[in-house]
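Exercise 7.
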Amino acid sequence: MKSYFLTCLGLIIFIQLHAQNHEESNYDESKVPYYTLPDALKSSTNNAIKNKSKWEKIRRPEVLTLFEDNIYGQVPKSFEDIRFSILSEDKNSMNGKSHRKEVLIEVFNKDKNVRINLLLFIPKNASKPVPAFLLINNRGKENTDPSRQIISEFWPAEVLIEAGYAIAAFHVSDLAPDNKDEFMNGVMQLYPDQLSAENGMRAIGAWGWGPVG
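Solution. The predicted structure, written as tokens, is:
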């Protein structure tokens, strides 16, 4: 537990230092301005956080808000419609060990839509829903080859299936291109106000929006 709170403390310090200058990155440690270490176990109103309940209800949301405002941007949670359709399916994938589904997820908002291609493998003999690992793939699409002709250590689908878990993946380009000049050509089209908001979502935030949007 102690190490967990120390980790949180380090994240808070990083956020506060980052917030001091939104526009410019500093890579010189000697230029780090003076700062006072925040107390990880005190709320923004200086109330002591003495138990798990207060951490989860008070301090944790405050830390997440610091991340939203200073690091990754806020994550919009509303949209007008969402649709799911199965593009292809193989009930005997991985030599009969898994059930593969390629699912198209379409999200609609403000007369725009984004199309997310989700690849999913489920253990063939699972008698009930199983936990799933989700990869937000920021490498080449061949790393998550649905045919399994290319098997990459970056995405050990077979290992997870053997262990009884499901495994899924989508590519970052479906949500926001990994390019400073083109990142807005994706999820941001659904939320154009994010581009002008000081704590608006950008590419990394858009990638994270996929699993929680």
